[in-house]
Design a protein that fits this description.
The structure is a single chain. This protein has helices at 8-20, 22-48, 59-76, 83-91, 95-110. By secondary structure, it is mainly alpha-helical. Residues 48-89 form the Flagellar protein FlgJ N-terminal domain. InterPro entries: Flagellar_prot_FlgJ_N. This is Flagellar protein FlgJ N-terminal domain-containing protein.
Length: 111
């Protein structure tokens, strides 16, 4: 499985891919979105749990949990019939995306 990250560099990579293959870039972008959504859901669920204070929360534990939620978000995203797949299938049909891909194909033919 590819490594989907929550960082600026991965978005720059998607932007570069979009110049060559807009459909692939859209697929990667919807997976990034799904990964980020799962990360935020898990982080939010953790914030809703009752903390007794018996075990102090250390910085190391918070960092570990943050990385854990990122990795779980990456692992869950990109599966068939997931939110990212649903978004991709619907966005690829949109007239806006079709216009953009036709314009990029015409530009490639002219160049």
């Amino acid at each position: 499985m590819e490594n989907y990250g929550l960082n600026f560099q991965s978005l720059q990579n998607i932007k570069a891919i979009a110049q060559k293959d807009p459909k692939l870039a859209l697929k990667k972008l919807t997976r990034e979105f799904e990964s980020l959504l799962w990360y935020e859901i898990l982080k939010g669920l953790d914030n809703t749990t009752f903390k007794s204070g018996f075990f102090p929360e250390s910085l190391e534990k918070k960092i570990f949990q943050d990385y854990l939620y990122q990795e779980v978000g990456r692992a869950v995203s990109g599966r068939p019939r997931g939110l990212g797949d649903y978004l991709y299938k619907n966005l690829i049909k949109s007239p806006y995306f079709k216009d953009k891909t036709q314009n990029s194909e015409n530009f490639k033919k002219e160049g």
